[in-house]
Design goal:
- The chain is α/β, with parallel strands linked by helices.
- The protein has a domain of 204 residues: NAD(P)-binding Rossmann-like Domain (Rossmann fold, 3-Layer(aba) Sandwich), CATH 3.40.50.720.
- It contains ten helices and 13 strands.
- The strands form four sheets. A seven-stranded parallel β-sheet has the order 3-2-1-4-5-6-11, with helices on both faces. The protein has a two-stranded parallel ribbon with strand order 7-10.
- Strand 1, helix 1 and strand 2 form a beta-alpha-beta unit.
């Protein structure tokens, strides 16, 4: 299978490139700036705002499947720079969707639980989105671009949530920030009133690779299998890594001046995904076990 991974330098994208290469597929990575990939695969540097260059790359590489892991994910940054968020999360996606249709390629787009308002989670794949804030609105609009522009039956939307892994790719993620802080004995404040589906990047990459190999269409929730509040996640991480759980300080979202709204009762139902894929969503305990293995191997 010829695969093109967009956002290949990122946390999920880099792991997906490695996973597809491990499965002996022909992979090309596409990312912004120089390649930071460990896997030795062809790489093209293109920004999501460069529509002509994106389309040309797809025309030349002739992928059978395109997986878009790229996005502007800084939630408050999107609120500050809505035009930039729209370019990355909507216009770039639309360009990729149109190019995928022209190439006859299956298109898999990575989205987020933030398309839901967080009033009544966890959410199943057929739940009605109700995005709040620029990031959420732009990601939902990106989903709609996929539905409208891709060939019917040749697209998949893969929603995930609170993705973490070690080492981080570029900016810190929730898990790597916690490990870095707690390992130094620093106290951390975590929301006790936000429920999420923490997702190990390695597991997300496995699920995306399964979707690509099977050519599955429709909406899929490719997150962790456990829905927990962030304090519980932090304490479970302390338990596995041997950190002092007293460093976890519960806080509430209302106590922090957040520029953009966050869904409170979020989380994703992964029943459909667990039944269909060879690599199902992992429980929090299993995810943290693999996360610890990543950390240990990187530290030796």
């Amino acid at each position: 299978m010829r695969a093109l991974v967009v956002g290949a330098n990122g946390l999920v994208g880099s792991r997906l490139v490695a996973e597809l290469a491990r499965r002996e597929h022909r992979v090309t990575g596409l990312g912004r700036g120089a390649s930071r990939l460990g896997a030795k695969v062809p790489y093209v540097s293109v920004d999501l705002g460069q529509a002509e260059a994106l389309s040309k790359t797809i025309e030349v590489t002739k992928p059978e499947v395109i997986v878009n892991c790229a996005a502007m994910t800084d939630v408050d940054g999107c609120e500050r720079e809505p035009a930039k968020a729209w370019t990355a999360n909507v216009e770039g996606v639309a360009t990729l969707a149109k190019a995928a249709r022209a190439a006859g390629a299956h298109f898999i787009h990575v989205s987020t639980d933030y398309v839901f308002d967080g009033d009544a989670g966890p959410y199943d794949v057929d739940a009605l989105p109700n995005p709040r804030g620029v990031y959420a609105l732009s990601k939902h609009a990106g989903e709609e671009a996929v539905r409208a522009l891709c060939e019917p039956g040749k697209w998949a939307i893969a929603r995930t949530a609170v993705v973490y892994g070690w080492p981080a790719a570029g900016q810190k993620n929730f898990g790597s920030w916690l490990v870095d802080s707690l390992s130094k004995g620093q106290a951390v404040k975590l929301f006790e009133d936000q429920w999420v589906s923490p997702s190990l990047a390695l597991n997300v990459a496995e699920m995306l690779a399964d979707l690509a190999e099977k050519g599955l269409a429709g909406i899929w929730h490719t997150s962790g299998a456990s829905v927990v509040d962030r304090v519980t996640y932090g304490k479970k991480l302390c338990e596995r890594f041997g950190f002092d759980a007293a460093l976890i300080q519960p806080s509430r979202m209302a106590d922090v001046k957040l520029l953009s709204p966050r869904p409170a009762k979020s989380g994703l139902v992964v029943t459909k995904t667990a039944q269909a894929l060879a690599h199902p969503p992992l429980s929090l305990e299993a995810s943290l076990e693999r996360f610890h293995d990543e950390y240990r191997k990187a530290s030796t």
